[in-house]
């Protein structure tokens, strides 16, 4: 096999169970008084959960009662999994949708980031389906139900993936909704009511499970493709269900070219005969034909039906063209019509391509045990074999829940789920090398606005694949594989490509097809390919996922995650209020700056936090904006003094306008009395620019500044990912030959943030400031880079205040995003700071780029003097 493609646009990840922070052994106090509804599941379980919640002080609500609940506990589909019943999920999902529709308007308008919750319970063994089989065909799960041939964690009901995908996408339409999926072994698990009561109103991780008494979650791990487990060649057949057009046809072509195998592609309808009037038209002619039909439909009120009909005609034209092209190129690609929702049709298709395994005890079955005899020869086959099946299906028609009917939403899920269930039933008695489902990251990470059904279907697809790979009693000899893709350039079914690119970068088709072929001969389980993270992450979602530093683009996403704090109020593109905590144990610089002899937060770190807060409110449409300028800064320096080793502030950020430009007003207040400590306006001086280099040779990782009673990461800087202490308050910093700046009220010790040596030069003053390492500012495994040149800013503030405490006033502070000092590998560089008139300027001594411009207000409060 050829070498992997250079300069990949995506990287391969698998997901693993890892310990999650344990919770206290009692319900959250915030549960008391909340209006909660319990739906789905077994009646006896629902009654037990309701009683547990009521005992914790919750008020129970049922559909039809007055008002709107604060939280929904959804016990989902609790019947044992039955491969022969592909519609078992529909009635429970309709019940879920009825409650969500009732809540929708109230929840969509709710700005409180803590009030709303949706908790879905799934039954995949407590490990989200990631348990390993331990063998044995007669294991039980301990509740009187057969395990399906699994030892270890048992996937009791893989269709719970529908609710998992739904839960992970709801926040797109309901921005302040906290979602959690709790995975357990069985709906009759004795401690299930207790677990639900503990999880509610302890928001944080989106997905947790309980296995053998341990709380677990899933984490991504970058892994190479394993060595090939099989070979494909001219004697092999690969069935690509849904492979007549688009991405499926591209894969079919790649397989036929690369391996010389025969590829059978399917579609629901027969191919065109070849003489249809709409088929013989050229592209301009078909465009005119389409416009004419749409005009007629507008007149007679049949637009929806006509659009659907024309879309089918367009697909059939593509199918005809693709099959002719394959034949002209000599590729062994054959089309067979098959309705994959019809079990009889699926069985007939498979019978045509692959013999069934002989009945146990038959002479053929005895021969099958001879490793030198092929199964197709045993049953009189033609000497060819069905090596594998690839399942592609999906329709993405984004629309918010109120605009999408139950019928359309069920259809969006069914197109993913039903066909795969029929295939799984059909291949149980056949020998394959692999069965691969083509999934999407909308299932694993949540979908875009309007994709509740698409995300639900894709996550169910992945869970079914895990079930298939772990089930031993059905006797499959194949590797079960689900490949979850980001957006494919030019080949995606996404209904809104521009919006999708805000979530993650797109995949180059040539690269994707190469990766896919490698997975088909080697991969198993759930495999995800991730591009660079986009800017579409929202504050409530940020706390729900372990955003690992291994993820592509994490270096860009980390700083705003790290500085987020605990979200309190959020309105997309309008307002974000958070509680931020700067703890001395996590912020060594908190003891490096003193006000009146007491430890205080350096003002530059507060300004950095303000810049990062504005990133959560940038417009979702148009070119990306990079907040890089602060205007009208006022800081009460005494208000930055830590109390009991920590500085806790409420940060209010609200979108406004400044000189006709987008801007964000930011105010920091004391939580105890609401008095203002600092205020400023954040805007963009450079419009939009490239990503800022990461700090000190590695991507940044968010850290925790303290902890909450629930064991989840603390609010304030670093709320996204738990921290690991570095064991040293200062690593590699120091004054670098600088001077300790002290005065009647302020002192910069220069132990963490390097000091400056000032010298007179002409009519101004000049200082060279050494680099300020992110690892010295924050105690974290991988600390976040900073946009502001921290040491240079502090050097100027020391100069303009003269060391006198008071109210700091800055007219303008600009840090061009494309001109941050440092080398291309992200190592921060030093800055030469100079003063001319009232303005201060910092330049990168390496290339002379301006990296900072700072203008101060002259005034009586000790902020406008010079030394």
Please describe the structure with a list of short key phrases separated by commas or semicolons.
alpha/beta; 21 helices; disordered C terminus; 22% strand
Radius of gyration: 30 Å
Taking all residues together, what is the mean pLDDT? 82
Low-confidence stretches: 133-152, 362-382, 688-743, 822-827, 862-867
Number of separate helices: 21
- Secondary-structure-based class equals alpha/beta
Looking across the biggest beta sheet, what order are the strands in?
3-2-4-5-6-7-8-1-15-14-13-12-9-10-11
Helix content: 25-40%
Shape: globular
Strand content: 15-25%
Q: Compute the separation of the termini in Å.
A: 69 Å
Number-wise, the strands total 31
- Biggest sheet layout: 15 strands, mixed
Description:
The protein is an alpha/beta fold and 867 residues long. 27% of the residues lie in helices and 22% in strands. The protein has 21 helices and 31 strands. The N and C termini lie far apart (69 Å). The relative contact order is 0.09. Residues 133-152, 362-382, 688-743, 822-827 and 862-867 have low confidence and may be disordered.
Ordered list of secondary-structure elements with their pairings:
Layout: E1 11-19, E2 35-39, H1 43-55, E3 59-60, E4 71-74, H2 90-108, E5 117-123, H3 161-167, E6 178-184, H4 192-199, E7 207-211, E8 214-222, E9 236-241, H5 246-259, E10 262-267, H6 277-280, H7 283-300, H8 303-328, E11 333-337, H9 343-353, H10 363-368, H11 375-378, E12 385-391, H12 406-426, E13 434-440, H13 441-445, H14 452-470, E14 479-485, H15 497-501, H16 509-520, E15 525-530, H17 539-542, H18 554-562, E16 566-571, E17 575-583, E18 593-595, E19 598-600, H19 603-615, E20 629-636, E21 646-658, E22 661-669, E23 676-683, E24 741-742, E25 746-748, E26 756-761, E27 764-769, H20 774-777, H21 790-801, E28 807-814, E29 831-836, E30 839-843, E31 850-856
Parallel strand pairs: 2-3, 2-4, 4-5, 5-6, 6-7, 9-10, 9-12, 10-11, 12-13, 13-14, 14-15
Antiparallel strand pairs: 1-8, 1-15, 7-8, 16-17, 17-21, 18-19, 18-25, 20-23, 20-28, 21-22, 22-23, 24-25, 26-27, 27-29, 28-31, 29-30, 30-31
């Amino acid at each position: 096999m050829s070498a992997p493609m250079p300069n990949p646009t995506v990287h391969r990840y698998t997901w693993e169970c890892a310990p999650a922070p344990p919770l206290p052994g009692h319900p959250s106090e915030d549960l008391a008084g909340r209006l909660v509804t319990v739906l789905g599941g077994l009646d006896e379980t629902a009654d037990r959960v309701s009683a547990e919640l009521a005992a914790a002080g919750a008020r129970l609500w049922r559909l039809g009662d007055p008002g709107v609940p604060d939280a929904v506990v959804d016990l989902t589909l609790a019947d044992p999994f039955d491969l022969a019943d592909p519609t078992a999920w529909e009635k429970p999902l309709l019940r879920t949708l009825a409650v969500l529709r009732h809540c929708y308007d109230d929840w969509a308008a709710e700005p409180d980031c803590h009030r709303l919750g949706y908790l879905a319970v799934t039954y995949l063994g407590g490990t989200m389906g990631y348990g390993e089989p331990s063998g044995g065909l007669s294991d039980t799960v301990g509740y009187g139900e057969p395990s399906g041939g699994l030892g270890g964690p048992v996937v009791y009901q893989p269709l719970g993936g529908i609710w998992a995908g739904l839960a992970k996408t709801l926040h797109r339409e309901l921005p302040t909704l906290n979602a959690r999926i709790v995975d357990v072994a069985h709906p009759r698990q004795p401690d299930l009511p207790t677990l639900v009561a503990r999880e509610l109103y302890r928001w944080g991780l989106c997905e947790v499970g309980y296995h053998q008494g341990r709380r677990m979650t899933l984490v991504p791990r970058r892994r190479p493709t394993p060595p090939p487990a099989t070979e494909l060649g001219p004697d092999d057949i690969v069935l690509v269900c849904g492979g007549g057009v688009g991405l499926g046809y591209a894969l079919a072509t790649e397989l036929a070219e690369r391996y010389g195998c025969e590829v059978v592609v399917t579609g629901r309808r027969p191919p065109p005969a070849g003489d249809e009037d709409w088929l013989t038209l050229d592209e301009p002619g078909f465009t005119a034909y389409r416009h004419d039909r749409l005009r007629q439909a507008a007149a007679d009120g049949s637009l929806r039906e006509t659009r659907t009909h024309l879309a089918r005609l367009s697909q059939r034209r593509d199918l005809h063209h693709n099959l002719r092209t394959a034949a002209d190129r000599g590729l062994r690609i054959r089309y067979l019509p098959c309705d994959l929702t019809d079990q009889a049709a699926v069985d007939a298709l498979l019978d045509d391509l692959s013999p069934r395994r002989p009945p146990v005890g038959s002479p053929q079955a005895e021969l099958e045990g001879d490793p030198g005899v092929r199964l197709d020869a045993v049953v009189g086959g033609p000497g060819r074999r069905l090596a594998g099946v690839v399942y592609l299906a999906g329709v993405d028609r984004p629309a918010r829940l109120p605009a999408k009917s139950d019928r359309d939403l069920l259809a969006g899920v069914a197109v993913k789920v039903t066909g795969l269930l029929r295939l799984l039933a059909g291949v149980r008695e056949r020998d394959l090398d692999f069965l691969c489902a083509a999934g999407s990251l909308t299932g694993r990470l949540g979908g875009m606005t309007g994709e509740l059904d698409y995300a639900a279907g894709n996550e169910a697809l992945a869970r079914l694949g895990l079930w298939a790979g772990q089930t031993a009693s059905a006797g499959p000899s194949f590797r079960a594989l689900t490949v979850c893709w980001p957006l494919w350039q030019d080949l995606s079914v996404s209904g809104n490509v521009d919006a999708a690119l805000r979530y993650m970068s797109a995949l180059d088709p040539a690269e994707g097809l190469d990766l896919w072929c490698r997975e088909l001969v080697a991969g198993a389980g759930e495999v995800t390919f991730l591009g660079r993270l986009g800017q579409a992450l929202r504050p409530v979602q940020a706390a729900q996922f372990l955003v690992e530093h291994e993820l592509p683009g994490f270096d860009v996403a980390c700083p705003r995650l790290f500085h987020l704090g605990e979200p309190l109020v959020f309105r997309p593109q309008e307002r974000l209020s958070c509680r931020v905590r700067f703890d001395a144990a996590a912020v060594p610089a908190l003891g490096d700056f003193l006000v009146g002899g007491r430890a205080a937060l350096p003002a530059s770190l507060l300004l950095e936090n303000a810049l990062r807060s504005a990133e959560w409110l940038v417009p979702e449409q148009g070119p990306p904006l990079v907040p890089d300028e602060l205007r009208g800064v006022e800081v009460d320096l005494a208000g930055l003094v830590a109390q009991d080793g920590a500085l806790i502030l409420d940060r209010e950020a609200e979108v406004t306008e400044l000189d006709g430009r987008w801007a964000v007003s930011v105010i920091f207040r004391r939580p105890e009395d609401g008095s203002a400590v600092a205020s400023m306006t954040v805007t963009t001086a450079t419009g939009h620019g490239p990503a800022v280099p990461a700090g000190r040779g590695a991507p940044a990782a968010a850290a925790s500044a303290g902890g909450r009673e629930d064991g989840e990461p603390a609010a304030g800087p670093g709320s996204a990912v738990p921290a690991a202490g570095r064991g040293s308050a200062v690593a590699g910093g120091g004054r670098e030959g600088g001077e300790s700046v002290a005065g009647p009220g302020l002192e910069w010790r220069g132990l963490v943030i390097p000091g400056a040596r000032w010298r007179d030069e002409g009519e101004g003053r000049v200082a060279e400031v050494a680099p300020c390492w992110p690892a010295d500012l924050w105690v974290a495994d991988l600390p976040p880079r900073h946009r502001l040149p921290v040491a240079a800013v502090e050097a100027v503030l020391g100069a303009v205040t003269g060391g006198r405490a008071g109210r700091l006033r800055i007219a303008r502070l600009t840090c061009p995003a494309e001109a941050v000092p440092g080398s291309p590998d992200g190592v921060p560089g030093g800055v030469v700071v100079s003063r001319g008139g009232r303005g201060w300027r910092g330049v990168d001594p390496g290339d002379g780029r301006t990296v900072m411009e700072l203008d101060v207000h002259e005034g009586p409060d000790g902020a406008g003097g010079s030394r």
